[in-house]
Design brief:
About 5% of the residues lie in helices and about 40% in strands. With about 210 residues, it is mostly beta strands. It has one domain. Strands 1, 2, 4, 5, 6, 7, 8, 11, 12, 14 and 15 form an eleven-stranded mixed sheet that branches. Strands 3-9-10-13 form a four-stranded mixed sheet, with helices on one face. Strand 9 and strand 10 form a beta hairpin. The chain starts with 19 loop residues before the first strand and ends in a 6-residue tail after the last strand.
Length: about 210
């Protein structure tokens, strides 16, 4: 179910344009509802993610002056089913996701090995040097870089079921990749997925605490 908070003006007004914005950078001006953002796990070549619920303590907007404004939370969203989250209609320079629980991903590898893993990710930031509007197109928040789930790296071979806890040494670099190498894209075709023509507007600047 879509979460629809009430948004208030939190800083001086910015002009909302169609496409990228490169005008004054003085906080976040909140107007009508924006197009929203869908969380997704980056596609993998040898691993299929079957389920992943992301339990968020807060969703925050990053202004082009570096300000961080909490929008709402807690809220849960599926990064496989593609749960859309609301955003205000405004111009931003980034988004912040604060996780309330470890990121759990369940799936299977190409040889049929099933797995369940938990990633200890505290926060995921994506930011841009030039602002982008939330009104022209919906956004897709891609968790982790392309290929961050690898059957070889996770030891997913030989069939059976593999359970990897957040303290497993194999998951430390995986968690770091999700925290620091995620991407935010304009969903130009509006399908809630990363497509060939979709445009990356912000990249990972998250924190990772080992």
């Amino acid at each position: 179910m879509s979460h629809r908070p009430l948004f208030a003006v939190v800083a001086a007004s910015l002009s909302v344009l169609s496409g990228c914005y490169d005008g004054p950078r003085e906080g976040i001006a909140v107007g009508n509802p924006g197009q929203g953002v869908t969380l997704r796990i980056q596609p993998q070549s040898d691993v299929t993610a079957l389920s992943s619920m992301v339990h968020l303590a807060a969703v925050s907007a990053i202004g082009c002056d570096g300000s961080v404004t909490a929008l709402y939370g807690p809220v849960a969203a599926s990064a496989v089913g593609g749960t859309p989250l609301d955003l205000p209609g405004t111009t931003l320079c980034g988004l912040r996701l604060e996780l309330a629980e470890p990121l759990v991903v369940e799936g299977s590898s190409a040889d049929g090995t099933t797995f369940s893993l938990a990633l200890d990710v505290d926060r995921v930031d994506v930011s841009a040097t030039m602002g982008f509007t939330t009104t022209a197109h919906p956004l897709v928040f891609m968790l982790g870089p392309d290929g961050w789930l690898s059957a070889e790296a996770l030891g997913l071979t030989g069939g059976g079921h593999v359970v990897l806890g957040a303290d497993d040494a194999k998951l430390l670099p995986v968690a770091a990749d999700v925290a620091t190498k995620s991407e935010l894209c304009l969903d130009l075709d509006g399908d809630g997925r990363l497509g060939q023509g979709d445009q990356i507007v912000a990249r990972g600047e998250g924190t990772f605490e080992e």
